[in-house]
Amino acid sequence: METMIGSGYTTSYLIYAIFLTLACGVLILQVDVKGFKKNNMHKEGKVSNVFGWLLIVLGVTLYVVDLFLK
Q1: C-alpha dihedral over 60, 61, 63, 66, to 10 degrees?
Q2: What is the Cβ-side half-sphere exposure of residue 60, based on CA atoms within 13 angstroms?
Q3: Exposed, middle or buried by CB within 10 Å (0-12, 13-18, 19+), for 39?
Q4: What is the distance between the alpha carbons of residues 5 and 65, in angstroms, rounded to a whole number?
Q5: For 13-51, what is each residue's pLDDT tens digit?
Q6: pLDDT of residue 58
Q7: Which band of pLDDT confidence, cut at 50, 70 and 90, is reported for residue 10?
Q8: Opening angle at CA 20, ends 54 and 43, nearest 5
Q9: Counting Cβ atoms within 10 Å, is residue 51 exposed (0-12), middle (13-18) or buried (19+)?
């Protein structure tokens, strides 16, 4: 009988990365973009908007990939 050390006790840190990218993307869109637009910083607002959506798309993509890898 073969025993595998650590079998069944592995932790995937990918779910933490997915949560962090989604949370950061939402926070950037909710806090930074509104603050930049309120202070008439339109260029910074546009960059934050793109970066926030990029993080959300990356988080969703990682989640879908993680579903297919399991």
Answers
A1: 180
A2: 8
A3: exposed
A4: 27
A5: 888 999 999 999 999 999 999 999 999 999 999 999 999
A6: 96
A7: low
A8: 35
A9: middle
Token readout for 52 is 């926030």
Task: Please report, as a single letter, which amino acid is at residue 8.
Answer: G
What single-letter amino acid sits at 44? E
Can you read off the two tokens belonging to residue 3? 């025993």
Q: Which residue is listed with tokens 């973009």?
A: 33
For position 1, what pLDDT does the model report? 47
- Please name the amino acid found at residue 29: L
Query: Amino acid identity of 11?
Result: T
Q: If you average pLDDT over residues 45-66, what whole number do you get?
A: 94
> Cβ neighbours of residue 1 under 8 Å, at least 6 residues apart?
none
